[in-house]
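Sorry to interrupt, but I need a hand with the structure work. Could you write out one complete protein record for me, on any chain you like? Could you add the entry underneath, on a fresh line?
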Amino acid sequence: MTLLTYNDDSFKRALVSLDEVKEALDDPLVLEVEEGESASGNPTVIYVGKTQTERLLEIGVEYKEFETHIYHARKANAKFRKLYEQHWQQQELI
């Protein structure tokens, strides 16, 4: 069993709720961008997805041995918005 932890301060600063994060991660078109390794050597991934209210979020996740840690969640920046748009357009062509 993997424990889910998250940075509550990051959520509060960005005015993002855990429910919104879950919605964005459940987006059928969620984009996964591998970010390499954290300072402690764990794999990190940025997920970009929409909430039910069409809010586009970027969610940073670090995968530890027995823990999945969401280290940030916020409104997607321009780079990730563009990547998500391109991903969405590619899915439309399939």
